[in-house]
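testing teh design pipeline on a random one, pls ignore if ur not involved
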């Protein structure tokens, strides 16, 4: 059994959750880059996903944590912003996150692509947060992933993928966007579609199996960069709800610029200045963010989240002796503290996550 499977499940499912939230904000005409509520939601959820204590548990070298055990942490992250979800909404959101990750891990063509699709999700997190300290935190998590898997052999990563799929096997739900794109069948099985990225690992397994991921010859079929602003090559792990999904163009030049994080921080500061000057929307404008069709409100959400937090905290006590990497932990402690402090000013309103972007049948 692999001892490295949990980060793949946790980070990819968290990334898929952010994709849904971003798309629904856009559908509700909430300007993510300019409005306070749009920035607040994505910043808060990302900060909760990358909480130092949660990552300490996730990056522990141990047998894979069951998806059911990861769910409370993911739910609390979703509820960490100004949004609310009822039980039915959370169930459907969780099914969507789970099935998207199951699809991606089912169709990967090799072990490097397993890491690359995870980095695609991390890239998206970095692009979504407007807080420069949040972007720094995401960059640290990127390096943690690279360091966590680079010294593993191709076969070890491939077995890690197998363990993840075994954990996801009981989840069988039809997702309309996958059905529309021809990526899923009515029986919930997946179709393998040919993309430009293909490691052909099974074909070359006898050669690559014992090679470390970081030592694989990229001139063969194993392309895709692990660098912070590298081109991942694969579509897996990108935002499938985006209108540009499937396009093959390279990353925009600014994403290769070493000053990208600094530029994003400058943009965020200018946005805050504009707000203070009164050129941005700062007044109270009530609205609901529709994700699910069930519009019943439940008063048990907070109680459920608090119970889940208590259960998670009890598990965290058992993990306190775990040391991911003290240097990483100290850095993340400092960055997350700044990130959390900068997000203290929240919009005093509630948002209902009702109607999911894509109906789950």
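output:
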């Amino acid at each position: 059994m692999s001892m490295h499977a949990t980060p793949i499940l946790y980070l990819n499912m968290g990334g898929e959750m952010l994709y849904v939230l971003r798309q629904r904000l856009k559908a509700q005409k909430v300007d993510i880059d300019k409005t306070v509520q749009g920035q607040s939601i994505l910043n808060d959820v990302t900060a909760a996903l990358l909480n130092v204590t949660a990552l300490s548990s996730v990056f522990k070298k141990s047998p894979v944590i069951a998806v059911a055990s990861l769910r409370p942490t993911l739910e609390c992250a979703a509820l960490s912003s100004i949004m609310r979800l009822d039980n039915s909404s959370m169930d459907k959101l969780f099914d969507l996150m789970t099935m998207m990750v199951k699809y991606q891990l089912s169709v990967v063509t090799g072990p490097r692509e397993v890491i690359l699709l995870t980095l695609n999700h991390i890239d998206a997190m970095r692009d979504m947060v407007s807080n420069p300290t949040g972007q720094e935190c995401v960059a640290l998590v990127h390096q943690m992933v690279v360091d966590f898997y680079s010294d593993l052999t191709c076969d070890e990563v491939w077995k890690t993928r197998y363990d993840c799929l075994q954990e996801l096997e009981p989840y069988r739900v039809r997702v309309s966007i996958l059905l529309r794109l021809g990526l899923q069948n009515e029986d919930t099985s997946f179709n393998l579609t040919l993309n430009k990225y293909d490691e052909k690992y099974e074909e070359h397994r006898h050669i690559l199996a014992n090679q470390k991921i970081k030592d694989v010859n990229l001139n063969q079929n194993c392309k895709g960069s692990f660098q912070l602003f590298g081109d991942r090559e694969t579509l897996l792990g990108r935002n499938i709800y985006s209108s540009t999904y499937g396009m093959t163009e390279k990353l925009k030049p600014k994403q290769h610029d070493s000053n990208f994080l600094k530029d994003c921080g400058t943009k965020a500061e200018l946005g805050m200045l504009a707000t203070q000057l009164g050129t941005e929307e700062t007044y109270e404008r009530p609205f609901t963010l529709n994700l699910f069709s069930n519009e019943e409100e439940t008063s048990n959400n907070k109680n459920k989240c608090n119970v889940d937090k208590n259960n998670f905290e009890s598990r965290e006590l058992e993990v306190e002796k775990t040391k991911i990497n003290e240097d990483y932990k100290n850095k993340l402690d400092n960055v997350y503290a700044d990130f959390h402090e900068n997000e203290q000013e929240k919009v005093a309103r509630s948002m209902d996550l009702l109607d999911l972007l894509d109906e789950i049948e």
